[in-house]
Amino acid sequence: MTSPRSIERMPNWPYRMQADLACAFCGMSKTAFLNRAGTDLPAGIRDHGNVYWYTDDLQEALDALRLKDSHKPERQGGWRGKLDGLRGSIGNAGSAG
């Protein structure tokens, strides 16, 4: 398995990865990654006895999950809501003078 320290120094992710590296790309444990593979995440492609995940497919799935999660009611009042409120108060402070 690739160590977390070497992943931090990795300038670019490989185009296709086995599970150990693919789960790090997704920011989750290998167990969580494999449990979600084929549902929220791509199932992976078999090639000569190995299973690979393509960076593009993983990124697309992560983007879809982010969009799906951003529409959940409990997420709307989170840090994004606070940031929007802060932006509004900054904009109002500049126009008050």
Fold and architecture overview:
α2 (19-26) crosses α3. The protein is mainly alpha-helical and 97 residues long. Helices cover 59% and strands 10% of the residues. It has helices spanning 4-8, 19-26, 30-36, 55-70, 73-76, 79-95, and strands spanning 16-17, 45-47, 50-54. The model has no long low-confidence stretch (mean pLDDT 81). The protein has one domain: Orthogonal Bundle (Multidrug-efflux Transporter Regulator, Chain: A, Domain 2), CATH 1.10.1660. The protein has six helices and three strands.
Uncertain segments are none
The second-level CATH architecture is Orthogonal Bundle
Q: Look at the structure and give the mean pLDDT.
A: 81
Into which percentage range does the β-strand content fall? 5-15%
Largest β-sheet summary: 3 strands, antiparallel
SSE succession: HEHHEEHHH
Broad shape = elongated
Helix content: 55-70%
